[in-house]
Amino acid sequence: MKRKVIAHLWNLPRWFAAPFFGASCLMGSAIAGRINLNAWIAMIAALLVMAGGHGLNSFLDYAWTGLDKGEKEDRSAEKSYTGGQNLIENKIVSLKEVLANAGVWYILSAIPIIYLAYFSTPLILIPWVFGMAATFWYSWGKFNYTHELSLGVAVGPLPMLIGAFAVNANANWINVLLVSIPFAIVLSFAGLALDEWPDAEANLKKGVKSLAFEVWKWSDWTEFKSRLMSQRKEPYPGGETTYITDLGEQTFRVKSLNTLQWYLTSWFLLMFFFQGLLIYLGILKPLTALSFFAFPFLMPCLLFLKSNFNKWAAITVIVGAMYVVLILVGQIFGG
Predict the structure, then answer these.
(1) CA angle 137, 143, 148 (to 5 degrees)
(2) I want to staple 326 with a disulfide (CB 3.0 to 4.6 A). Which of 61, 135, 253, 291 is the partner?
(3) pLDDT, position 104
């Protein structure tokens, strides 16, 4: 029972992404005018939509696309920073429970949205509705090369517009859309290649088509040799003894991470360049350059992926979250 509660409240909503969606929403408010009570209410709404979307995606990836269905080697891999991929297959929650989970988060999101629609502008209903519908696009987009675009829209323009309309009915939506691009790059266009790397081999067999999966597909295979040893313990009077057997040298084939590292670096450089352009144009405040301090941390993360992929992928996500939070802080306190 405890494991089921954790699944519903933590794993399915995937709160690890909250800094990205939350900062995006608050940035919309900052660009449109100011951070006030309505901005924080909008952020709560955006996070509830995010939680519902993640739950619905778990449902769709099992019941519709089948990416999370099957034996361990035939389905999406479990990630340390999400933990929601295999909950249905492992019988922790049922398919109906996952769908209900998504529905509850969406219903809860309607409460702050209706409040903001009444006291600010009904226009806020547009990004809210599209935010919920984006989950269907995201699941479908994995098979037609719109995978990255769908998540980019879901984490960038949509929550940012919710934040903007929450504080200003006449928000400059063009500026909001321009500022949303770095947010879309860090979590989607760059982040998905990292996130889908462990899933790629299994998911490519099911026909997925996206840049994230293409990165894995066109990466070179590399071979390494390792000597395997087996160990067994056998009891004897007064204790036990350990027998070690040399199984000989074995050859293993794995995908090289070089292409992934260059791919991510290219997106990060474009992200920082575009942010610099927004500062030059006066759309972002100069203090948002605080986020450039994330770059020296991103590079070691990409380098150390070769030492322990799961560990350094999770740390990269943390640094990415630090990047969007620093942009937000710079915009709020930039004068």
Answers:
(1) 60
(2) 291
(3) 98
